[in-house]
């Protein structure tokens, strides 16, 4: 991996993971999409008249939170080369681009992308749902995911809300939980033995007071 490639991944991994907290889509998949669709960030749309950077990682056309940028491209039609003007969404940050892309993928026809158990299955679901016309789209995404170890960014956990932390600290102070280690597990399901342990501690405290 080149220094430029590593820098691009590090630049977009955080926004991809943050967006995943709301959408449930594997960050490795959206990072791979951004790499594939922008050529490692080299082809992010830039307004050709003003030089304004769009932060648009997924080639989404239209008007975005920061308006749009205008791109003039040459296309061949009926043997003639003509100029075609396109408006691409503009964003204020890569985070906005990932969030907008996630909202697009939360449409019903992309449901299997969200519910996929592996990044490879999510990539295949994107192709099956008609996201891209390239018949090798899923294969290309999977190749990027595995070649650049993008799955390392899929371990996303939401920050624990302050009110839960306060409850945990109080339970620790009251002796209902016995180790500060539990404060990092407040969003995890409690195993049966832990539930029984807390119940027994409550029982012991009540008996001690009676």
Descriptive report:
- The chain is mostly helical and 210 residues long.
- Helices cover 48% and strands 10% of the residues.
- It has helices spanning 3-23, 27-38, 94-105, 111-115, 119-128, 137-147, 162-173, 192-209; strands at 68-77, 80-89.
- Strands 1-2 form a two-stranded antiparallel sheet.
- β1 (68-77) and β2 (80-89) form a beta hairpin.
- The longest helix is centred in the first third of the chain and has 21 residues, at 3-23.
Put the structure in a nutshell.
This protein is mainly alpha-helical.
Looking at this protein, list some descriptive labels.
single chain; 210 residues; mainly alpha; two-stranded antiparallel ribbon; 8 helices; 10% strand; elongated
List the topology elements.
Elements: H1 3-23, H2 27-38, E1 68-77, E2 80-89, H3 94-105, H4 111-115, H5 119-128, H6 137-147, H7 162-173, H8 192-209
Antiparallel strand pairs: 1-2
Mean of residue pLDDT? 85
Helicity level: 40-55%
Major sheet strand order: 1-2
Beta-strand content estimate: 5-15%
Main beta sheet, described?
2 strands, antiparallel
Q: What structural class do you assign from the helix and strand content?
A: mainly alpha
N-end to C-end Cα span: 67 Å
Number of DSSP helical runs: 8
Q: Roughly how many Å is the radius of gyration?
A: 24 Å
> What is the string of helix and strand elements?
HHEEHHHHHH
| Shape descriptor | elongated
| Count of individual beta strands | 2
* Poorly predicted spans: none
């Amino acid at each position: 991996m080149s220094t430029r490639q590593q820098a691009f991944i590090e630049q977009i991994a955080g926004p991809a993971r943050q967006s995943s907290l709301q959408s449930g889509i594997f960050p490795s998949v959206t990072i791979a999409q951004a790499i594939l669709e922008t050529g490692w960030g080299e082809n992010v749309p830039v307004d050709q008249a003003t030089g304004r950077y769009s932060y648009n990682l997924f080639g989404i056309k239209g008007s975005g939170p920061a308006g749009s940028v205008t791109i003039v491209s040459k296309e061949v039609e009926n043997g003639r080369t003509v100029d075609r003007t396109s408006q691409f969404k503009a964003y204020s940050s890569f985070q906005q681009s990932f969030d907008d892309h996630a909202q697009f993928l939360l449409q019903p026809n992309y449901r299997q992308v969200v519910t996929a158990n592996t990044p490879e299955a999510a990539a295949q679901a994107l192709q099956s749902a008609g996201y891209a016309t390239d018949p090798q789209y899923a294969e290309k995404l999977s190749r990027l995911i595995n070649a650049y170890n993008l799955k390392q960014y899929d371990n996303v956990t939401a920050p624990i809300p302050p009110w839960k932390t306060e409850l945990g600290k109080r339970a620790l102070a009251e002796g209902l939980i016995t180790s500060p280690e539990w404060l990092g597990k407040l969003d995890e399901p409690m195993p049966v033995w832990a539930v029984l342990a807390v119940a027994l501690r409550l029982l012991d405290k009540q008996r001690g007071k009676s």
